[in-house]
Amino acid sequence: MSPVKQSLPVYRLTKLLTLITALFFTAPAMATEKFNLVTENFPPFNMSLQDNKFEHKDENIHGINTDIVKELFKRAGYEYRLKLRNWDYAYNFTQRKAYRGVFGTTYTEARKPLFKWVGPLSTNDWVLFAKKNSGIKLNTIEDAHAYLIGCYKNDSRAQFLKQNGFNTSELDDDSLNPKRLEDGQIDLWITSTSSGLYYAMQAGINSIEPVFTLKETKLFLAMNPETPDQYINQLNSVLADMRQDGTVDRIQSLYR
After folding, report:
1. Would 160 be classed as within a structural domain?
2. Are 188 and 79 part of one and the same domain?
3. 19 lies in a domain?
4. Taken in order 244, 248, 250, 256, is the CA torsion positive or negative?
5. Would you say residue 5 lies in a domain?
6. Bridging pattern class, strands 148-152 and 61-62
7. In terms of residue numbers, what domain contains 170?
């Protein structure tokens, strides 16, 4: 056998190994574990198709943020489980182990070091509702110190109110607050415009109205900080592509 023929297999093997190495270091990061994602009932951003308080299957959960997250993980090629729970459970569940995430989480400076962030998925507002003809007039947020404010337990808005000395009444189920407001059990209710009107409609209540807007916020997928950066970076890259090609806008338009 000639020297040329003897060296040919080695040459081909070296070339193949070089190609495999290049593909390994340039291909998108593939997760070796399944992601565990949790969200809450927060229409129209995330909600149960059957109006259940809890859901165990992702096909029964939809909404603006949910649809964006499902498409995001599909494009990234990452396996996931998705469940719907109350906010307090979802928030604490995510902080206990890597590859866990909760959405849509409001980004705040206080929460910044607690998670790794993918987003924003969408924007939201903080609004105070009052009963119609209540006579409540708010020129600044400080005026709300005189009133009892209903809120959703451990929600970022509830945290803001408590940290700033407002008189709050928290519930695990935000959908009960329109009825409490109508019945005079609370004076104000802090929520978002979209969610407030949705919950009021579901409860058959048309006697409440927004009276003050505090601010606009951004909603994210908040991942456990032990989740490797390579997956966070890839998810943010795919999300940027979804914004660029119009997917995010298309999903949002379905709920307007």
Report:
1. yes
2. no
3. no
4. negative
5. no
6. unpaired
7. 125-217
Shared domain check, 100 and 149: no
The count of structural domains within the chain is: 2
CATH of the domain at 155: 3.40.190.10
| Amino acid at position 175, single letter | S
pLDDT in tens, 204-226: 999 999 999 999 989 999 999 99
**Same-domain check for residues 184 and 149:** yes
40 is a domain residue? yes
pLDDT tens profile 239-248: 999 999 999 9
pLDDT greater than 50 at residue 24:
no
Exposed (0-12), middle (13-18) or buried (19+): which is 128, by Cβ within 10 Å? buried
Q: What angle do CA 148, 152, 155 make, to 5 degrees?
A: 115
**Residue 256: burial class (beta carbons within 10 Å; 0-12, 13-18, 19+):** exposed
**In terms of Cα–Cα distance, which of 153, 141, 149 is closest to 181?**
149
Residues 212, 129, single domain; the answer is yes
Cα distance between residue 150 and residue 167, in whole Å: 9
Quick one: which of 208, 243, 238 has its CA closest to 78?
238
Handedness of CA 110, 86, 227, 236 (dihedral sign): negative
Task: State mean pLDDT over 186-199.
Answer: 90
Which position has the token pair 């048309």?
A: 206
Per-residue pLDDT, averaged over 113-138, amounts to 96
HSE-up (13 A, CA, CB side) for residue 42: 30
pLDDT digits (tens, 9 = 90+) for 171-183: 998 989 999 999 9
- The answer to which of 10-19, 85-94, 178-187 has the lowest mean pLDDT is 10-19
- Strands (E) in 132-234, as ranges, are 148-152, 167-171, 188-191, 208-223
